[in-house]
């Protein structure tokens, strides 16, 4: 039997701390995943659902974007994939009675865990101006309200957010709706996630995506995994790393924290994993200081260049001459860079930097994998350009077992971008859209996530719509962002589960419930499928099998097709299409995609019978680089790293093992030894004493930010328990979203605009007795 939703919030006083785990996954992980699944779904539904994850006739795991191998295990999912599935396939329901029982103020008083645990949304709901409760509204009325509101404002006075679970088909219709309305205001979760990767890779390699396949990972000789916690966030990646290691690969983990899984991994799908104690994944663990990665990669580059001078056999001169630009400037810049700065920035001894340099020098094929630890810093784009520099020196792009591997987060965040969810679309994309739909798409760039918040704050945006996600909890500067959203006329959330963005709203608010990946989607009497793109540019279909929470629920596609019809029908200047036909036959949307987006020729046939196809990728396929110079670009990036003021700590905000972004599955971070609570701050034991505190003490975290006008701004997050943890001195860690209140809206990465969620200067403050 599934259990009822919780009635109380997390009791932080019950937080317990145990020793850190050195081993990831294995049998305890399976047990924990099944506990959560049984809680949400009961035993029979759990079995029925979990066996369909990532199978050729099943649905794409709504967890992460790590690709599936072509030969799949029966259970091709992981502990955290199972939790993601259970959250969606839960039998708990949030319907009209729930909203009648709980006022907005009551809901707002609960924590994110409580909100998310209540169950699936089932009915369209509206909050009238001044009302204390949401009330039910019919689908027709809700969609008319939205269409009217969108037509009543200037195009740029509306903002349209996307989270990365939205299918290709829905994303394509969404961007068409938005551009048909006349704006490119399409911020997405990517702006807070891998935007820095996209910015760096587009400039230097001519494509904003990774250049490796799963086979490349298996066949690499050296894999550097930097700024990523795969044991929690991409557990299936560990299987790939294990396979690479069994073929002789070396893995170097670069992280301020010794994350479980990087250190040792037990594969629950093999006997060896269960019985023999697993594989040691990382051959070297570099405990780097927060934000020290640019220095690390410059150090590797400098080492390779110096070795070339003495040995003459290190660089791939042919590749450099034929396929790159800017080598001489980069060589000179590295010759001038002092080793002492690299040591200071990374906190790693010179001989360690040399040793990594040697590992790279002697590797015939190297891949660098990364995630949020590299992208969410002020100098993230510069850091990633320096990653590219290192790979270019040895021709490690566009050949087997080598390349860049940004490991994406949301299961279709990459596909959404391919479908045009982007505030700065290319002219070629817009021109193709114009041709296909006989209209003129707007050319002016729109707002990204941070710019959208500023525009709401400043009163220039009146309507906010979100296709999934939890905008108010995921974004920085919670106090500012909440006020910004509250100042709008209307907020619209298309969602599967209740979250804070349903309770921090504009003067009026509408919730549209929708189908998720696990739900059967029948339109026009026919079972529909959707498609997604994984982290390695492979596209495949996904089809849910469970009966949806209610019989009249609309899919994201259906909601968008109806909004397009309501907004565009009869308007000769608007996009022209048969919207009703699109709603009842998603293949017709795919045929529009085929006409607009390069690489989708023969789309329908390529995804038939569970088949997967890989999108074209110039660097990987042909060593073709669509950059400003027509070549892969070496770049010169002045070294940056965070300086931590005396008596302060640099805080990174990260995920616990029991959460999916703002969705809190449970109260434990098992691998890090935190149980029953989330308001903890992990600090080096020596810093705790040096700052005059004691382990277990409860403190406020106060962020200190030098505003551009020179003033010091303070932001406060209350009541965090100090936990002594193995992190470099001066560095601390705490969970997001609780700490988003500390991240200043102005503090973003250069070029990409990504909030600097891994680099917040804080002081600990004793609470008044
Ligand atoms: N179960 C689960 N799976 C998920 C998610 C989830 O919340 N839960 N989220 C999904 C999403 S959207 C994303 S983007 C990914 C996120 O996947 P990750 O990027 O792995 O997520 P974070 O928890 O932010 O972890 C950041 C890691 O980088 C390290 N780090 C922080 N700063 C630095 C630094 O300056 N240098 C280096 N070298 N390391 C650093 C941290 O110690 C931590 O190990 O996971 C996806 N998958
Ligand atoms: N401080 C700090 N802030 C961060 C980060 C960090 O590391 N530190 N990480 C950033 C990153 S990497 C990301 S990606 C963002 C995440 O930002 P978001 O993507 O906005 O947040 P999620 O928590 O993934 O969104 C969860 C909600 O999505 C809805 N949902 C789930 N599945 C579906 C679906 O299929 N359809 C629809 N319509 N709705 C669905 C549910 O209602 C659920 O409550 O947060 C960012 N914010
Ligand atoms: Mo993400």
From TrEMBL:
Superkingdom field: Bacteria
4Fe-4S keyword on record: yes
Keyword set, alphabetical order: 4Fe-4S, Iron, Iron-sulfur, Metal-binding, Molybdenum, Oxidoreductase
Cofactor(s) the protein needs: Mo-bis(molybdopterin guanine dinucleotide); [4Fe-4S] cluster
Residue ranges occupied by any Molybdopterin oxidoreductase domain in the UniProt entry: 120-492
Domain (Molybdopterin dinucleotide-binding): residue spans on this chain: 649-760
InterPro entries according to UniProt: Asp_de-COase-like_dom_sf, MopB_CT_YdeP, MoPterin_dinucl-bd_dom, Mopterin_OxRdtase, Mopterin_OxRdtse_a_bac, Prok_molybdopt-oxidoreductase, YdeP_MopB
Keyword Iron: yes
Listed SUPFAM superfamilies: ADC-like, Formate dehydrogenase/DMSO reductase, domains 1-3
Stated family: Belongs to the prokaryotic molybdopterin-containing oxidoreductase family.
PANTHER family noted in UniProt: PROTEIN YDEP, RESPIRATORY NITRATE REDUCTASE
Cited NCBIfam families: Fdhalpha-like
Entry protein name: FdhF/YdeP family oxidoreductase
Organism: Microbacterium rhizosphaerae
């Amino acid at each position: 039997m599934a259990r009822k939703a919780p009635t109380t919030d997390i009791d932080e006083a019950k937080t317990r701390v145990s020793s850190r785990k050195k081993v990831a996954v294995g049998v305890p992980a399976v047990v924990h995943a099944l506990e959560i699944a049984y809680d949400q779904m009961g035993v029979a539904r759990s079995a029925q659902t979990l066996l369909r994850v990532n199978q050729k006739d099943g649905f794409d795991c709504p967890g992460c974007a790590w690709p599936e191998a072509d030969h799949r295990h029966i259970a091709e999912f992981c502990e955290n994939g199972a939790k993601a599935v259970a959250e969606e396939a839960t039998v708990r329901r949030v319907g009209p009675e729930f909203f009648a029982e709980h006022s907005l103020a009551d809901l707002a008083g609960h924590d994110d865990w409580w909100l998310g645990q209540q169950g699936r949304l089932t009915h369209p709901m509206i909050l009238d101006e001044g009302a204390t409760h949401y009330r039910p509204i019919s689908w027709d009325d809700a969609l008319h309200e939205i269409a009217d509101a969108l037509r009543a404002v200037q195009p740029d006075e509306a903002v349209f957010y996307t989270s990365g679970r939205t299918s290709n088909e829905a994303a394509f219709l969404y961007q068409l709706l938005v551009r048909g309305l006349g704006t490119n205001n399409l911020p997405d979760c990517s702006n807070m996630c891998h935007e820095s990767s996209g910015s760096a890779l587009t400039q230097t390699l001519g494509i904003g995506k990774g250049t490796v396949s799963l086979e490349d990972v298996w066949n690499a000789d050296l894999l550097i995994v930097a700024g990523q916690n795969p044991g929690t966030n991409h557990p299936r990646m560990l299987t790939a790393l294990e396979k690479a290691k069994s073929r002789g690969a070396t893995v170097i983990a670069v992280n301020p924290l010794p994350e479980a899984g990087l250190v040792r991994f037990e594969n629950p799908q093999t006997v060896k994993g269960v019985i023999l104690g697993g594989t040691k994944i990382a051959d070297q663990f570099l405990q780097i200081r927060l934000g020290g990665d640019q220095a690390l990669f410059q150090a590797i580059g400098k080492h390779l260049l110096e070795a070339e001078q003495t040995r003459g056999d290190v660089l791939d001169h042919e590749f450099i001459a034929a396929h790159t630009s800017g080598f001489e400037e980069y060589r000179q810049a590295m010759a001038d860079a002092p080793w002492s700065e690299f040591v200071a920035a990374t906190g790693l001894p010179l001989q360690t930097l040399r040793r990594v340099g040697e590992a790279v020098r002697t590797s015939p094929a190297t891949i660098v994998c990364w995630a949020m630890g590299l992208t969410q810093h002020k100098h993230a784009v510069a850091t990633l350009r320096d990653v590219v520099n290192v790979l270019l020196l040895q021709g490690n792009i566009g050949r087997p077992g080598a390349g860049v591997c940004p490991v994406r987060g949301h299961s279709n965040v990459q596909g959404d971008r391919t479908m045009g969810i982007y505030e700065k679309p290319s002219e070629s994309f817009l021109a193709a859209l114009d041709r296909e739909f006989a209209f003129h798409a707007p050319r002016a760039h729109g707002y990204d996530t941070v710019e959208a918040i500023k525009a709401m704050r400043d009163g220039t945006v009146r309507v906010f719509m979100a296709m999934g996600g939890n905008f108010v909890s995921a974004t920085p500067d919670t106090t500012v962002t909440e006020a910004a959203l509250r100042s709008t006329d209307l907020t619209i959330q298309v969602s599967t589960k209740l979250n804070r963005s349903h309770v921090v709203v504009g003067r009026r608010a509408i919730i549209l419930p929708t189908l998720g990946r696990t739900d059967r989607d029948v339109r026009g009497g026919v079972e529909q499928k959707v498609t997604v793109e994984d982290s390695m540019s492979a596209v495949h279909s996904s089809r849910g099998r469970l009966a949806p929470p209610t019989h009249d629920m609309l899919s994201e596609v259906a909601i968008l097709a109806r909004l397009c019809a309501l907004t565009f029908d009869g308007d000769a200047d608007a996009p022209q299409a048969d919207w009703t036909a699109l709603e009842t036959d998603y293949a017709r949307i795919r045929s529009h995609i085929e006409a607009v987006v390069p690489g989708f020729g023969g789309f329908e046939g390529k995804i038939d019978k569970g088949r997967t196809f890989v999108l074209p990728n110039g660097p990987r396929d042909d060593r073709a680089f669509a950059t400003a110079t027509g070549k892969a670009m070496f770049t010169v990036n002045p070294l940056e790293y965070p300086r931590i003021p005396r008596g302060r700590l640099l805080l990174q905000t990260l995920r616990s093992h029991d959460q999916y972004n703002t969705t809190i599955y449970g109260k434990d971070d098992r691998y890090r030894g935190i149980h029953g609570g989330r308001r903890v701050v992990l600090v080096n034991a020596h810093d705790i004493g040096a700052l005059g505190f004691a382990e277990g003490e409860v403190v406020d975290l106060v962020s200190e930010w030098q505003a551009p006008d020179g003033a010091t701004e303070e932001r406060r997050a209350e009541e965090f328990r100090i936990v002594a943890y193995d992190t470099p001195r001066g560095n601390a860690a705490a969970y997001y979203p609780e700490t988003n209140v500390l991240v200043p809206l102005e503090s973003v990465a250069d070029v990409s605009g990504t909030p600097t969620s891994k680099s917040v200067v804080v002081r600990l403050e004793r609470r008044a007795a």
